[in-house]
Amino acid sequence: MSENKKVPDTIDELEEESLSDSVKVLSPGRLVLRRFFRSRLSIVGLSILIFLFAFCYIGPLFVEYTDTTTFAIPREIKMVTEEHFTGADGKVYTYYDVSKNLAYDKAPPSKEHWLGTDPNGMDVFTRLMYGGQVSLKISFIVVLLEALLGVIFGGIAGYFGKWVDMLIMRIVDIFYCLPGLPLLLIASQIIRAIPSIHPNERLYWLMGILTFFSWSGTARLVRGQILSLREQEFMIAAEATGLKARTKIIKHLIPNVMPQLIVSMTLGLGQIILYEATLSYLGLGVPFPYAAWGSMISAADPSKGSEILSFYPNLWVAPGILIVAAVLGFNFVGDGLRDAFDPKMKK
Amino acid sequence: MNGINKNKNKYTLTRKEERAIIRENRKMMRHFEKLKKRKNVSESEYLTQMRDPNNLVEFDDLHTYFYTDIGTVKAVDGVSFEIPKGSTVGVVGESGCGKSVTSLSLMQLVQAPQGQVVKGSIRFNAGDKCYDIVKMPTEAMRKIRGKDISMIFQEPMTSLNPVFTIGSQIDEVILLHLEGYTKKQAKEKSIEMLKRVGIARPEAVYDSYPHELSGGMRQRVMIAIALACEPKLIIADEPTTALDVTIQAQILDLLREIKHKTNSSIMLITHDLGVVAEMADYVVVMYAGRIIEKGTVNDIFLDPKHPYTIGLMKSKPVVNKVVDRLYSIPGQVPNPINMPNYCYFRDRCDRRFDKCAGDYPPLYKISDTHYAACYLCDKSKEAQ
Amino acid sequence: MFKYIMKRLLLGLLILFGVSIIIYFLVRNMPADYIDTQTAAQVSQGKLTREQVENMKALYGIGDNSFTGILKNYFTWLGNLLKGDLGISFVYGRPVADVINQYMWISFGISFTALIFEVIIAIPLGIYAATNQYGVADYTVTVLAMMGISLPSFFLSALLLRVFSLKLGWFPLLGLRDATQMLSGFPAFLDMLHHLVLPMTTLVLLSVGGLMRYTRTNMLEVLNSDYIRTARAKGLSEKTVIYKHAFRNTLIPLVTLLGGTIPSLFGGAMITESVYALEGIGYTAYKAVLQADVPFVMGYNMFIAVLTVLGILISDLLYMVVDPRVKLR
C-alpha cells in the first residue's frame, strides 16, 4: 500500500497536477481532527470516555435489577470471645470461644455480584453504572447551561461594551469572588430542606446550583475573546460592509469563539464531575437510595469508623477510580482539542 | 461509499502514510540532534580548508530540511555560494524561498528539532583556522555565535527580551565573548556602541526597557548588540522590512557605514531589490530552496539571465517610467514537499521550451562571476 | 500608583457588597436552625415558651425569615461589620473574628508548607518537560499532572489513609495530636507534624500537577519567542538561555498565579481537613455550616471573599513588579 503512495495513479492525474498542488494537504476541519487523533493522550481520553458511557448506559441493560435493589446474602462472620483465668499452676490461660454468626450485608465479591454488596445489601457494580449516569448527566447539562449563560452574558458584554459591559463584568466579578464550595454546601442543604421539592427532582436543582456558581468563568472567557476579535481586521471589514449586529455576532464572532469555548467546556465537564462527587460525598447530592460515585466513597469516610476503609476496599475503590477516569478522560480530550485547535503550540 | 471516497482523496494523507512520515521524522530528528549534542568533540573533526582563502564563508551544496507532519520540506536544497571577505552579499527571493533558512543554518539556529542541516558544508574562515559549521557540535558553535558571526533579525519589536534593560542585553554579549572586561568597562563599551549606532542619549537608553523604544531604535540596539564584538560577518535578515521607509534608509546607511569602518562582511537577506542594488556587491537569487542565479550586482541588474530574475526586475517600479500596470510573475511558489525533478519555475515560466521537461537544470556559467540555472543559458544547446 | 490602588480597593468594596448580599440570603435560608435545635429539649419540657425562643432569635438577629426581615437583618449585620464587629459565633460563644483567628493558623501552616513543596517540585519539572517537549519525561509529567488534577481530594485521602495509616501504620489516622499521651513543647510539635504528613501530601499531590502544567505551557510559549532566538544568536549557553532569559519571562504568569492561592492559603482546605478531622478553619467552617452557625458562616465566607479580592489586587501589583511593560493607570 504505502510503497506507491506518492506515485499518481494514472497519467491523466499527472497532467492535471501543477507544482503547487502536487502535495497532499488537509482541510482545516480535517486538520484539527488529525492533530487531535495524532496525540496519544487524546485517543486514551476518548477511549476512556467511550468505555465509561458504554458502561453507564449500556451496562444496565444486561442487569435485571437496579441500583436500589437489595439482596440479603448471608455470609458467615466469626465471633471470637476470649476468657482468661489463672490456673492452679499460676499461669494465665486464655480460652477462645469461636462461634459463627450470619450477616446479610457487605457480601464479598462473587459471580453474581462482581464487587459484592454494600452495607445496605445493594449490588456495588450495578450502583457504579447508575452513579455514573448521574455524574455524566449532571456534568453535560451543567456545562451546556453554563455555556449558554456564558455566551449570552459574555457576548452581550463584549459586543456592546460601555456601561453594559461594566455592569455585566461587575456581576461576573461578584460571582468570581463568591467562595464556591461553602456556598455550594449551603445551597444544596437549602434544596434538601424545601419540602415541595421531591427527592427525585433534587438532581435538577443541583444542576441549577452548579450552573449558578460556575457560569461566570465562561462569560469572562467569551467576553475576552470577543473583545480581542473586535479589534481584528475582519471585524472592521464586517463593520464596513454594514452587516447587522445579529449577523455579525452569529456569522463572525461566535464561530471564532467556538474553539476556545469547546475546549473550556470539555475541561469544565471534568470539573463539574468533581464538584458533584464532592457534594455526594458530603451527602448533599443525589438522595439515598439512589447511587452516586461520591456517596459510595463516603462509606469509607474515616470519621465514620475505619472498618469499611480498611476491610472493604471493594466498596469504595472502584467508584474513586471511575471518578478519576472520567475527569482524566475529559481533561485529556480537552487538552487534545486545545492543541488541535491551536497549532501554534504544536510547532 | 463516502468513506471510500475520503480515502481515495489524493490531497489527503491516509493514516498509514501519516504514521510512516511521523516515524521516519522521529528517527531522522533524533539522529541529527544527537550529532549536535555531542560533547568534547576534538577540533580536528570539524576543521577544514577554504577553497579560496579570500572567502569568509563558503556554502557548499547545503541541504536544510524540515521534517513536518505532512512530509519533508526541503527548505534549502543544494545551495552553494560564497561570501568574500569585506563584501556584502545580497540574498534575494520571495518569502519562503529558503533565504532565511540558509542564514539560520550558518548560525545553527534552524528551528530544532524539526529543521536540520542534512547534507553539505558551510566553511567558515576564522582567520588562522577554518571550520565546517555543519559538523560542529552546538557547544563549539556557541563560541562563534555573537562573536565572529552575529545576526540582526527581521522583527525588532520582539527580538529583544522585554524584561531586561537594553544595557544589560548589550553587556551580556560583551562579557561573554570579550576577555578582560569588567562590568564597568562593559557598560562603557555598551554606551559607546549605542552612540556608534546613532542613538542620541545612549546613557538614558542604556537603562531603559525595550518597550520604551521605537522600532527603529530597537533595530539600532539590535545592530549595537551584533556589532559589540566586532564580528567578521553580520547576517542581516530583512533588517528593514518591519520599519517604515524613512527609518529603513537610516538603518541601511548605518549598516553601510559600519561595514566601511570595520571591514566586516554582510550577508543581507531581503526581498527588496532596491535595497540589494544599493547595498550589495554580490547577489544570490533563490527560488524554492535553490539558487537560480548568482553574480555581481551588475551581472544581475544589468544582464539578468534567468526568466525568474528577469520577472523580478520587471516587477520593480522604476522612477521616470510610465507603466500601466506593474508586472507580476504569474502563478505561485510551488509547495515545497515532494518537489518533482524538473525546473521548479517551469509552470510559471513564459519562456519554457521542450528541454524544460528534463531534469532540474544545473548552474550554467555565463561569465566568471555570473551563473544561472536555466536551459536558456546552456551554451552547448546553441552548438547543437 | 496610590490612585490606582484606591480605585481598585473601592471597586473591591463594591464587589464585596454584592457578594455579601448573596451570601447573607443563602446563609439565612439554611434549613437547620441553631437556636431551634439547642432549645428543642427545653421547649418540650416546658422550660421555655415559643415566644421566648422567638425573642431569642430576634436578639441574635435571625428572627424574621420574611424577605424584608432578612434585608433588615442584613443591614444590621453590615452596620456591625463596618464597626469591625462580625458578631458572636453561636457554637463557640466568642467573637467570630477570634474563632477565625484561632483556627486559621493551623490551616495556613499546612497550606503554606504544601505550597512551598509544590513550587519546589512543580517549577523545575515543568521547565524540564518544556525543554524536552514530546520526550518520555514530558509525557510522564503531563500524565502525572493530569492525574493530580483529576483526583477527588476525599478519594486520595482515603487511599493514603488506607495504605499508610491502616495498612502500614506509619501515620496516625485522624486529628492533630495524639490523644493517648500528654505532650508539650517540641515533642508535641513533632507529634503534630507526624499527624500532618498525610494531609500535606494530599494537598501537594492535588495541586502540584496543575502548577507543573502551567509552568510547562508558559515555558513553551516563551521558548518559541523571537528574543530566545536572539539570546541563542548571542552565543549564550543553553543554561543561560533557559534559566535567565526564558525563565525570567515565565515568571510573569507564575507570580500572578500566586495571588490566586491566597484564599486557599488562609481559608483552609475544607474537604481535606474534614476527612483528616484536622481542627483547621476549613473543617470548622464545614461543621458550622451543618450546625447553622449563621454569624460564623457569614464571617467565614466574607473572609474568603475579601481574600479573593485582595488576591486579585496583589496579583496585579506583582504583575507590575515582574513585568516592566505593565504600567498602572
Q: What is the residue-averaged pLDDT of chain C?
A: 84
Distance between the termini of chain A: 29 Å
SSE pattern of chain C: HHHHHHHHHHHHH
Beta-strand residue fraction of chain C:
under 5%
Task: Give a structural overview.
The complex is a heterotrimer of chains A (347), B (384) and C (329). Chain A has 347 residues and is mostly helical. Helix content of chain A is 62%, strand content 7%. Chain A is built from 12 helices and 2 strands, in the order αααββααααααααα. A two-stranded antiparallel sheet of chain A has the order 1-2. In chain A, α2 runs antiparallel to α12, α4 packs antiparallel against α9 and α5 packs across α7. With 384 residues, chain B is an alpha/beta fold. Helix content of chain B is 34%, strand content 21%. The N terminus of chain B is likely disordered. The N and C termini of chain C lie close together (8 Å). Chain C has a domain of 193 residues: MetI-like fold, CATH 1.10.3720. Chain C is 78% helix and 0% strand. By secondary structure, chain C is an all-alpha fold. Chain C is globular and about 90 Å long. The chains are: A mainly alpha (347), B alpha/beta (384), C mainly alpha (329).
Please name the defining characteristics of this protein.
heterotrimer, A: 347 residues, mainly alpha, two-stranded antiparallel sheet, 2 strands, 7% strand, elongated, C: 329 residues, MetI-like fold, 0% strand
Topology overview:
The complex is a heterotrimer of chains A (about 350), B (about 375) and C (about 325).
Chain A: H1 11-16, H2 28-38, H3 40-58, E1 75-86, E2 92-103, H4 124-160, H5 162-177, H6 180-193, H7 202-230, H8 233-240, H9 245-281, H10 293-297, H11 307-311, H12 313-341
Antiparallel strand pairs in A: 1-2
Helix pairs in contact in A: 2-12, 3-4, 3-12, 4-5, 4-7, 4-9, 5-7, 6-7, 7-9, 9-12
Chain B: H1 2-8, H2 15-36, E1 55-68, E2 71-84, E3 88-92, H3 99-107, E4 115-125, E5 130-132, H4 138-141, E6 149-152, H5 166-177, H6 183-196, H7 202-206, H8 215-227, E7 233-237, H9 245-262, E8 265-270, H10 273-279, E9 282-287, E10 290-296, H11 297-302, H12 307-314, E11 364-365, E12 371-372, H13 379-383
Parallel strand pairs in B: 3-8, 3-9, 6-7, 7-8
Antiparallel strand pairs in B: 1-2, 1-4, 4-5, 9-10, 10-12, 11-12
Chain C: H1 2-28, H2 34-45, H3 50-60, H4 67-82, H5 96-131, H6 136-150, H7 153-167, H8 185-223, H9 226-233, H10 238-267, H11 270-275, H12 281-291, H13 294-322
Helix pairs in contact in C: 1-13, 2-3, 5-6, 5-8, 5-10, 5-13, 6-8, 7-8, 8-10, 9-10, 10-13
